[in-house]
Specification:
- This protein has 71 residues and is α+β, with helices and mostly antiparallel strands.
- Helix content is 21%, strand content 24%.
- The protein has a three-stranded antiparallel β-sheet with strand order 1-2-3, with no helix packed on it.
- It is extended, with a radius of gyration of 15 Å.
């Protein structure tokens, strides 16, 4: 499928509803009741913008959670 520069790169924001077998997840689009299934490889973390007001503990917690998710 052709994607132009003006198209959104991701469909986002989804919330994980249930972990299924074989690395698949049931996900729900935020703000709707629509539930769909997606493979782990199709999911991405929501980008987070950091500012100077963010506590270092929050940053370390975020990085630890990312590392655990990769394992």
């Amino acid at each position: 499928m052709h994607i132009s520069k003006s198209d959104d790169e991701f469909l986002g924001h989804y919330k994980e509803v249930k972990c299924l077998e074989n690395g698949r997840y049931e996900i729900k689009k935020v703000g709707t009741t629509i539930i769909t299934k997606a493979a782990k490889e199709q999911l991405r973390s929501l980008p987070v913008k950091w500012s100077s007001k963010v506590d270092i503990g929050d940053i370390l917690g975020f990085l630890e959670a990312e590392e655990e998710a990769r394992q």
